[in-house]
Write a structure and sequence with these properties.
16 helices; alpha+beta; elongated; four-stranded antiparallel sheet
């Protein structure tokens, strides 16, 4: 490929990369919109979380007030709740999730908490002395948080002037999922740290009262009160559990029942109740597209909510004798009566305005993605057109296999032209071999360059060391949480290197010789001689009735290319070329070692994939 063909190829590659980036960027922008979160009750009002905003809905179904966390330099994350005096408790995450936490979340590795940092711990006493009693007027200089810099952690805020103070600064950070509920009778705070598999109890001042073990629950999610009893959705144990609230026996199991609806939907993670029963959002393994199933408190199944509008159910709550069900995909809340019968959609005018703007963002993102997709296929089509006009013969050969004689890398070309290209040196060598009746063994490149290949494999094998060196700046306890991940990664990498080494060693055992008009195939101690005109072949194998050997692909032959083309391939007959199916059948029947090893590698990769997906 030279001149205009090379320039065209470069432009096509650049165009393909740009269009792919555009395609994925559009989808990212369309998906990166605010979504509905958790729905809670604040006295006689309903509070709806949407992105970084909270909306209070009064008894008339109107938006009474709203709060935008970003206006106060907060980034609210996850669940929230209200004390009985109206104070808001929420978690602020100042920094985006770290790479290590992203890895742990993806592989669902248990999160082990860190102690609060020094600067936060130093303020613990200050937090405790600001007791947040009902008479606390909060007459401090933080009446407004505009311009303030807030550390990651829990905050308790008075909503009138939105004045906030850190809460429970002794707690570790929560980089992953959690849920919180506050008992209205005494303001006890209960938090489930999902990735730590534990539940903690705090008093109204943020002091730690009790904590569960990390073995009693598996990814606990929502906490809630049913008839003043504390319940938790023990997600990966597929159950709802009633817990003891007493400090001395905190989180011990009082009762429990299994909450699954199918082999797919078996992960309960959110719920609400109507005093006599509980309605549970039971999701699939991706924690999405759940089913809302009713149970009595003994675990007997009842009705299901059957949404007409909501596609991906999120939070559900019973308020004013109606169920309010939020959709994670759309800015949509669907209402049902207390019997679970569909009523309609909740659509205040402000939500309609927000939804219009939201849909515009999604539409623009999808339009950019569509442009990228169209551009990608246009680039591909342009590539085919350019290949047709600039490299017509090679293009026909690549897609049809016809006219292979024009392709200098093909076996057919060697059959047609190999003998004509024999130079004087090779002609003399052939003449000498015929006289001595000794076979000529082609140079096995795997043997010739084995030292260089061993060095390359050693360098590849040591690549994980560079990753390990990057952990020198990682906190020691954070690093200890990744030992399992590193162990699996290194084991997988080592298996990959051993597979490459095994294939390379097997190729070294392959030998190919020429004796007059006969071709000698050899693998280890198994050797067979076949007349060249009777030897079957494919693009990558020489195949006899009892033994087949690989010769590599057209671009990378296992034997010296010049020797292979002129001594072996030039003597073959085009009539003996096998189809892909015939090749597969012959190699399978002979259980050709390298061919079978490929199946072992594929099986190993599939096993690791299934292990990660369904077990780990």
């Amino acid at each position: 490929m030279h001149g205009r063909s090379l320039i065209a190829a470069i432009l096509i590659v650049i165009g393909a990369i740009i269009s792919l980036v555009m395609w994925q960027y559009g989808y990212f922008k369309a998906a990166d919109v605010d979504r509905l979160g958790f729905i809670k009750q604040d006295k006689q009002q309903l509070v709806i979380q949407y992105g970084q905003k909270l909306f209070w809905i009064n008894a008339q179904g109107e938006i009474a007030k709203q709060l935008d966390f970003t206006q106060h330099n907060f980034i609210a994350k996850g669940d929230y709740d209200f004390f009985n005096n109206g104070d808001l408790l929420f978690y602020h995450q100042a920094e985006s999730r770290s790479f290590i936490d992203t890895i742990k979340a993806y592989f669902r590795i248990t999160h082990h908490a860190q102690s609060a940092n020094g600067s936060q711990q130093a303020n613990a006493n200050k937090n405790t002395t600001n007791n947040f009693t009902h008479s606390d007027t909060h007459n401090e200089s933080n009446a407004s948080n505009v311009g303030s810099v807030h550390h990651t952690g829990w905050y308790r805020c008075k909503l009138a002037a939105f004045s906030c103070q850190p809460f429970a600064v002794h707690l570790s950070q929560f980089p992953r999922a959690f849920h919180v509920v506050i008992k209205q009778t005494d303001n006890s705070v209960f938090i489930s740290s999902t990735a730590e598999h534990k539940i903690i109890k705090l008093n109204q001042f943020g002091d730690l009262q009790a904590s569960s073990s990390t073995t009693a629950f598996k990814f606990p999610n929502q906490l809630g009160f049913i008839n003043n009893e504390l319940w938790v959705a023990d997600t990966n144990n597929h159950r709802l559990v009633q817990l003891s609230q007493a400090t001395e026996s905190f989180a011990s199991e009082v009762s429990q029942f299994t909450a699954t609806v199918s082999a797919q939907n078996k992960f309960p993670f959110l719920f609400t109740n109507d005093n006599s029963s509980v309605w549970v959002n039971i999701a699939g393994s991706q924690m999405s597209y759940g089913v809302i199933q009713q149970y009595d408190l003994k675990g007997k199944k009842g009705k299901k909510l059957t949404p007409k509008f909501v596609q991906d159910p999120m939070s559900v709550v019973l308020w004013q004798d109606m169920f309010w069900l939020a959709d994670f995909d759309e800015l949509l809340i669907e209402q049902f009566d207390s019997e679970g019968i569909h009523i309609g959609a909740f659509e205040p005018s402000l939500f309609k305005t927000i939804n219009t703007s939201r849909n515009d963002v999604i539409a623009r993102g999808e339009f950019v993605a569509l442009l990228g997709k169209v551009a990608f296929f246009v680039v591909l089509l342009s590539g085919f057109v350019a290949a047709w006009f600039l490299e017509k013969k090679q293009t026909i050969n690549a897609f049809t296999g016809r006219n292979a004689k024009f392709n200098k890398d093909s076996i057919e070309y060697s059959i047609a032209n190999g003998k004509d290209e024999v130079d004087d040196e090779m002609a003399k060598r052939l003449l000498h071999l015929n006289k001595t009746k000794a076979p000529f063994w082609l140079t096995n490149r795997a043997v010739k360059y084995k030292v260089a290949v061993y060095i390359v494999l050693a360098v590849i094998a040591l690549l994980p060391c560079f990753i390990l060196l990057q952990t020198s700046s990682v906190n020691e306890s954070d690093l200890s949480q990744l030992y399992w991940f590193y162990g699996v990664f290194i084991a997988g990498w080592s298996t990959f290197i051993l597979c490459l080494l095994s294939v390379f060693l097997k190729i070294q055992k392959v030998a190919l010789g020429v004796l007059g008009e006969s071709i000698i195939l050899k693998y280890e101690e198994h050797e067979i001689s076949v007349l060249a005109k009777e030897l079957n072949y494919s693009n990558e194998h020489l195949i006899s009735p009892t033994l087949s050997i690989p010769i590599g692909n057209a671009k990378q032959r296992y034997f010296d290319k010049k020797e292979l083309n002129q001594y072996v391939l030039a003597q073959l007959s085009e009539d003996n070329k096998l189809t892909p199916f015939q090749t597969f059948k012959a190699l399978w029947q002979q259980r050709a070692p390298i061919f079978m090893f490929n199946f072992i590698m594929i099986g190993l990769i599939l096993f690791v994939f299934l292990l990660i997906k369904f077990v780990i």
